[in-house]
Amino acid sequence: MRIFRLLIVLCVITSCAAQPEKINGLSFVAAPDAIDESHTKPVVNVGANYTAIMPFGFIRNLEHPEIVHNTDRQWYGETRAGAKQYIEELRKKQIKIMVKPQIWVWRGEFTGYIKMTTEADWKTLEESYSKFILEYADLAQETKAEILCIGTELENFVKERPDYWNSLIKKIKTIYKGQLTYAANWDEFKRTPFWGELDYIGVDAYFPVSDQQTPTVEECKAGWQKHKTVIKSLSDTHNKPVLFTEYGYRSMDYTGKEPWESDHTIKSLNFEGQTNATQALFEEFWNEEWFAGGFIWKWFHNYDRSGGEKDNQFTPQNKPVEMVLQTFYKTK
Asked: Which positions ≥6 away from 61 have C-beta within 8 Å?
């Protein structure tokens, strides 16, 4: 009987040891300034073990082929030097890193709609994007970042130029030797063609889960079921873990209805809805073996001045939902 019990204990220990550590991540927003321990300590306090570092490139409009990046006209944290400094400071706290270069289209137009009108412009865009992403593949290798995200919500670019993307992934792999993902929008990931070449199926997880003004945890969990089935199926098909490259909810009414909504004219304030929707997401995904974890959107460096009781944006900082985040991040 003692031997039998010992075998059970050993099996449990072995099973636990085999489970990979969840990626309990924060999307660490680039700022005008360098960071120090006062900015990294709150990352540790909330229980995060990863941050996404997000340098930026800028495009004039959806049909413009040239990406401007790494210039002295950008905020420090949006440049290579700033991203490197952020990584070095976070490393002092044993925080792992995903380098996630992103594009901003003038006036915030959706990057998924980027589309050139001529073959010449497509070629220019490809050359420009390669310079942009390979710059940060080199930084990811230099800083030994654990993950590199090769693009964010670029569905039309991916759809129109599949040969380019296959070639780009091969070039990236000659420079960067860590793990790769791509951040597909929630309604894009099913069609992304190159998951087989990457390590994670990356999803910006702004799935609609409830039409209620203040959704309950159970309503949101019910709303996840149809999406979760598709996500799990894709994971099985490619034999790849799923990573929520972004996830989160605004502290506003109807937060689960269109979670991608970033309209600043919306003035409603609803912490309960944000908390319930986030709790439901954790309960649905964080215990799944095929689910790698995720990066909450978004976390600002100046913790004391971020979020709070009058803020209805995405950040969990200084809001009730931060306790939910801390509870899951410190136990998973």
From this structure: 105, 106, 109
Taking the C-alpha atoms of residue 114 and residue 30, their distance in angstroms, rounded to an integer, is 23
Cα separation of 217 and 254, whole Å? 13
Q: Per the structure block, which two tokens stand in for 105?
A: 């289209």
Distance CA 274, CA 50 (A): 22
Which residue(s) pair with 203 in the sheet? Answer: 184, 244
Rounded to two decimals, what is the model's pTM? Answer: 0.94
Shortest CA distance to 314 belongs to which of 264, 265, 240, 280?
A: 264
| Per-residue model confidence as pLDDT tens digits over 213-247 | 999 999 999 999 999 999 999 999 999 999 999 99
